[in-house]
Amino acid sequence: MSLTAEHALRLEEFPDFVQEVRGHRPFPWQTSYLNEVADRGTWPDLDIPTGLGKTSIIDIWAFLLAWQHTAGSGRTVPLRLFFVVDRRLVVDQAHDSALALQHALDTALPDTVTARVARSLREIAGSGTALESVRMRGGVDWASRWLRSPAQPAVITSTVDQYGSRLLFRGYHTSPRMRPIDAALCGIDALLAVDEAHIALPLLVTATDCAAYQATAAQPEFADRAVKVVSLSATASTGPGRPRHSITSADRTHPVAGRRLAAQRRLTLLDAAPGGKDPADAFARAAESAVDALLPIVERPVIGVVANTIRAARATYRLVSQRDDVDVVLLTGRSRTLDRERLLACTLVTELLTGVNAERAKPLVTVATQTVEVGIDISFAGLVTENAALAALIQRLGRLDRTGDLDLAPALVIRASTQSDQAPIPVYGEAAEHTWNWLTDQAPTLPTTDLDTNTLAQVLPDGLLVNPLTLSGLLVDIDTTLLNVAPPRIPVVHRTLLDSWTRTSPTPVPDQDPAPFLHGLDTTPEDIQVLWRADLQEIDGRPDFDQWTCRMRQVPPHPAETVAIPAAQLRRFLTRTAGADDSSDLESTPQPPEPAPGPKKQQPRMSPVLSFDEVQGEWVPVTEANGIRPGSTVVLPSHYGGHDAYGWVGTRALPTCDLGDFPPAATAPTRIHAPLLALLAGGDDHLTEALTKTITRAIGRLHAGEQEEAVIVHNLLDTLLRYLNRYTDGAYADLARDRLSHLRTVGQWTVEPTGRTERRGRVVLDPDEPARLLLIPPHLPAGQREQGAGVGDESADASSLTRPVSLSQHSVAVADRSAAFAIAADLPTNLIDTLRTAGHAHDCGKAHSRFQCMLCAGDRLLAESLDEPRAKSGMDPADHAARRRAARLAQWAPEMRHEALSALAVTAWLDTRPAHARGTDDELLVHLVAAHHGHARPLLPPVTDPSPQAVICTMPDGQQITVQSGDMGADWSGPDRFHALNRRYGPWGLALLEAVLRLADIACSEEGT
What we know:
The chain is an alpha/beta fold. It is 38% helix and 13% strand. Strands 8, 9, 10, 11, 12, 13, 14 and 15 form an 8-stranded mixed beta sheet that branches. Strands 3-4-2-5-6 form a 5-stranded parallel beta sheet, with helices on both faces. The longest helix is centred in the C-terminal third of the chain and has 21 residues, at 987-1007. The protein is globular and about 90 Å long. The two termini are 30 Å apart. The model has no long low-confidence stretch (mean pLDDT 90).
């Protein structure tokens, strides 16, 4: 569809677009790259030095997508851009850049190029949102999904594991039911841009293989939409024939780019390895000496110190932070999202990111890991770094004088350990040793003993000049393969393996782990997602697993409270096994081999934890180290410790705060529990005791009904706030006070299970919990989405959100929304009709009388008195116990699937050859209905109705079809149908068609329509 001439875009307007959005003109290479993509229709790899704005591919993609739409030609520019980095980031520059672009599009003034780009993108999306900027995250419920529409232009930032596992239908830390949606969004109509691709080559190769298979789809509309791959690295490509785009003389002579390319970075070596000390301690001591020597020399008061491991970074931070003459900040990537956001908001980090004041009273020293190598726009005046592989050192040097304004930008490389079979160099191994040996022939080398400022000042100006203009000359005739970590062996994605991965329900046994296809054959499996809860307590020194499980069901985890930890390190932490934790902020780096397990009686005792079983959908106890499995989600009692405000510590010095009550959702429940509140406030046993008495008294009054619930709750909150206001030193005291203050603004409260409204909050009491309660804020106003943690496709009543909705109303709403999504996604007319029909019929099996009883909270008489069947119960999404009780009273087992009945009814309806379904893909229609909660890929659960009955289902044309519930779960034609549809539309094309219907269903459920 072409816009009017006044709204059309021209390629020559790209510099004006960048000027409006970023406040500066693009570099020459950026404009020439845009023109090359527009001319050829392909995306060459980028061979661009660090510091010249590779994240501008976001602006280039967005402008081309809008330009192509206004031109009226067939769209070849993908709807979604995935920006992937293979490390844990503190600051995600790509995400920040995308957010800035999103804001510019939302607030563009009329008669600007940006306004026309925004208008075009909104037309593509079919909505009022021009662009969404998303950080990919994990999660097992609907609230964890990262895009609401399959037609929405979006920039998604991610790690290799997050993107790659989803592309392969095996999303880490996600529900098996959500995996087809994730795979669709990652694998079709997507542009994959991989930064630092030299260490993410397996993902590039695997994604290219996947694109080749999707390109074999029988339907050309889906073959042409396969994922497109771009490497943002000079040293990595999926093949020798791949086109590359590089800087030219125009960039070298550009007043800004040219200065950055010629930055005066001078490199000197410091050898701290002799002496056989612990590498982390040796680096910390040498780094402090180096900082001491650099302080009087640097031209701006900001120095960066980069270590290879979290342990070395923390050792350095502990040492340097004892000084009074500097300010120090620690940045590591393995931290909980909420902790990271709070750290970024602190004064020192804010100053670091916005530019350090040259007149500040004390120099700022930033101690970090690989997390600062990419994704963060900071500029140090001096750099101290641990010796590493060449590629890593080049990335670190890119944080030194990024603007090229300094006369001298000194960099000191410290060797803290040497390579040996018994003690390899952590993270980089032989590559670091070869790099050091090569550098000693190029740069001056000094011992760290007796290092003084005068000696260093004399040597630094003669250090090795390393910048993008000199680097190519330094590496002439050098075999750089020895200077970098050896590329991993990459397995081939065979068709049979891909067919196996597409089977997400049930998952094949055995199932191929995707890790080798994302990082190569020689790397460790994916990390474990770890969280902490303060209400997992012990009785007489023993865990009460039943209570732990109940409490985790009540308040499910959210992504902002988790941190990714290697399985080996978590086992070592829980068993208190001796050994250095050499975790880094690179993903899936090889870990030291773990000791072979001995006899059971000799195995170290492990502190008990809970792990989430994805198959059962339940939390299960784990008491032995072999139960800590890669890829799982594990919850630890807070008193175990292991994490502080900066991230993963790996020691048990102090308890870890519970952040379970602080997800992004505005209606999240809050646990009123003394140990949790006291820990947040940084209180002691006296505070815990006082809070316990206060909460117990309030609960007693609520049970007794002595006063109105609102009066009791308000008095309780007032008293809790008075206690917490006395404690201001706790790292999270403000979170607790702000939350309680917010709850205090709620005017009405009730203990009734169905009493929560848009004005009245809910108090959840448990007779077995005399000193603990939950407060759930009121519903959001009508029309706003309410996302409840733990609400997903697993439970029988998976969509009980906000308010009761009739089956006919919901069916029409989902049909219309599915068609709207399909039109916006530019799908063929016959598929739009198929999706509209599937949306109308998808829930017709809910007419089963016992399912209706469950939707009426287990009240059979109420169900029988309804004028028409319900689609949504309106039960409180936060009250998981009430929903399970309703299913039990209605005798509806979770394994019984209403979509199985719906698929039976659609099949019988199609046998009558209805005119309404003429022109649709009948096989696809049956599959979409059967798979709309993530099952039937290729089989529905083989569970039949133990008490069969006739179910009358109303079809899209008003015809009523009767099916027998005893036949549900026995669709043995499903596998053949699934295989045929995968060949017809491609694996990711079929998943996309499912995603259109399912995202429409979820959106309508959340809105209460």
